Batch of 3 targets.
Target 1
Amino acid sequence: MATASSTKGGDLLDRLRAAGVVRLGIAGEIPFGFIDKNGELTGEAPELAKVIFKRLGVDRVQPVPTEFGSLIPGLNSQQFDVVAAGMYVNPERCEQVIFSDPDYQMLDSFIVRKGNPKGLRSYEDIVEKKAKFATGTGYAEIQYAVEAGYKESEILIVPDQVAGLNAVEAGRVDVFAGTALTVREVVKKSAKAEATEPFKPIVGGKPHVDGGAFAFRPTETGLRDAFNVELHKLKKSGELFRILKPFGFTKAEMTDLTAKELCGG
């Protein structure tokens, strides 16, 4: 039985089809995966999951909200079937789960005061100009700044991009670093701050691009492969961009990166 079905996604996909529902681990993070004010599940990853799983013969998705740090442990302890949270693919996570190919790529961007008075366009600029720097709790941007030579103990850590915008507007810091997408969205209503042009941080001496994807248990290669087949069809047809666009994604966030490249393989 398993061998006959493994080409189409294997045992788990068969079970999901029989149940008619797939459980998605989400972390309540806008725009990646969240419950909206009407109590409905939405976000770029759940909306994409709805389309792909329907094509795989699973009609319903059910959200299982958790903390971001609990997504991988929750997946591996079978609390849900797949992580649908726009999770960045990196070598450390690749040792614990397997990823689909990324559905988006992400560059970094800064929130600075209007006119960018200090001319901050990279982490190296922040170090060189001794700018006061903030970023969010647990953000990858902490490491990017440290890599450029910024002292970790001097970074102001704030809860999220809204708090980052407030810190820049109030003059407590010169710059807040986040993903191009979250920064672009949060400054829209600001009269005092703007977003810099997106850029690639330097990691290990090379320009680095992050990519977000769906995570599966390491044993579920069949389901991951079946998911990838449908994902690539959506990329090719342009449907993927149409699904992600309402969440603030632009053509600059579309990508041909593979999970293998981002896992360091």
Note: The chain is about 35% helix and 25% strand.
Target 2
Amino acid sequence: MTQTSTRPRRLSPAEVHARLGEPEAMIKDKKLDHIDEHFRFFIAHSPFLSLATADAAGRADCSPRGDYPGFVKVLDGHTLAIPDRPGNKIADSFRNLAENDGVGLLFLIPGMRETLRVNGRGYPTDEPDVLARMQTEASEPVLAIVVEVAEAYFHCGRSLIRSRLWDPASQALADEMPSVGEIAAAQIGADVDPTVLTHALEESYRKLY
């Protein structure tokens, strides 16, 4: 018996455009090619962003970045710098930037429905003056990602409203998840007590800086 594919039908760009229609002129005009005073103020209050990159073949990756509000520095109206804090050392973003320097950023502020999107070109740096601006609690990053801004704009809050992301009641969803130790033990097939794995991860969280 021949097995039929369950992959959904792919739409052409023309079909997508026909279904979505044209954006209003105000929506088109809100995109700027620089960081103005309002974007700068938003970035200064944001403790979290998602960083999207892709390799030469277009294989995409999106990683979370977070720290104290304002951890991303506005070097000038066309340039941002993101500190590379201690993490898992996989360095997917850096490998992608070596092949394809396109980046997309999505900044969030807890409790605020609107987000800030920034797109541009990125590259790693170890410039001492840049790294010194990112020092926290006597810890200075060894690398940073410089983003040359091509466009920036605020995104409406519909997705955050629908997701109820900032609703305290939504945090109850986390209680329904297994522990990270249980997940890790199942995924890597480790013959290790999940409690031990969870404890090790929690201990690593306490050594962020």
Note: The CA atoms of residues 106 and 193 lie 37 Å apart.
Target 3
Amino acid sequence: MLPKQRQDQIVRALRVDGAGGVKVLAERLGVSEATIRRDLEQLHAEGRLTRVYGGALAVDGCDQPFADVNAVRAQEKDRIARRAAELITDGESVLLDIGTTALRVAQHLHGRSLTVVTSNLAVLEELENDEQIELIVLGGFVRRSYRSLVGYLTEESLRQIHVNWLFLGTSGVRPDGRVMDSTMIEVPVKRAMISAADRVVLLADRTKFPGHGVARVCEPGELSMVVTESGADEATRAQLAEAGVQVVLA
């Protein structure tokens, strides 16, 4: 693979994930970590990404279309989503975060007697015709690129509700178990969601362990459970378990 092709793939990967570590990018592209570090430095100099310790972040304005993100690691996301849906008992209330894994959770809820609350416009489209589900959509500013609602109205709506379950997405989990996000505008909404739920379940595939992000969403102790897959970094999983978080492999 030519350096230009490899660097374009790095930028595309960051646009999908929001952030990426040197080790994960090296494994994904089949090159050495030293090669990835050189590529990241060059791409940072060109303004195509932001270099951070251990990896890089996508630059502002680089959101991928929702359908493109949804196609990445689709089977892994679906296994995680199916396992998450199995946790819910009929009659309970569920809060679904933005993102493509949350959409896949919604796809596994059809026909069940549940209350679903969301700021995810893709979840709205998925469930709006299912008469078994009581669907509540939070207000807010429409972030079209990622099919989400954000802002003061979203946060204020969340202060008026309380649910049994929150299924939360992330840009990455730090080695110490902190949950991070690389999109600053989404972080206050995620924090408000955590405050509105009895049980907080983080949904994250193995590429998010360990991960990166510019803003802290929550400490590991604020999570009830993490649903992930085999191959997720064992040291990070151990930190979560030490904080009292149940780690479930899909």
Note: The first strand starts at residue 19 and ends at 21.
